[in-house]
Amino acid sequence: MRLTRLTLAGLVVAALSSLPALAADFEVKMLNKGSDGSSMVFEPALTQIQPGDTVHFIAASKGHNAETIPGMFPEGAESFKSPIGKDFSFTFEKDGIYGIRCTPHYGMGMVAMIVVGEPTNLDEAKGVKQPGKAADRFEAIFTQLEAAK
Ligand SMILES: [Cu+2]
Hints:
Largest sheet: 4 strands, mixed
CATH topology: Immunoglobulin-like
Bound molecules: copper (II) ion
Radius of gyration: 19 Å
Mean pLDDT: 92
């Protein structure tokens, strides 16, 4: 009896561990003021996820949205542009770097990056010309991404 139970337990563990990893949820807040005092930010600026994971963009402050930056997401991936001032969720399926901007505050540097699996389009993403403060913020995010490897 005891042996049988142990065997059963072993089978259950084996079955569970062979299941694919469950999809995870992440939050990115859209804020007038970040925790470090800088204004117009997505927080965190960099989120690394796996294909099938969902990111919830939270309208913690009013007047913001989340939009994929043209040329800054993997080929074949779906682009999006969320309505201003609303929470928005997106499930990322394709590996690569997704540059995200707040449409009204792009030039003020309100940008974020979602990296799904492998950063397959790193060179293309780095090559996108960024306006104003977005250039500095993305430089910092790319540095953070390098450090996270
Ligand atoms: Cu904004």
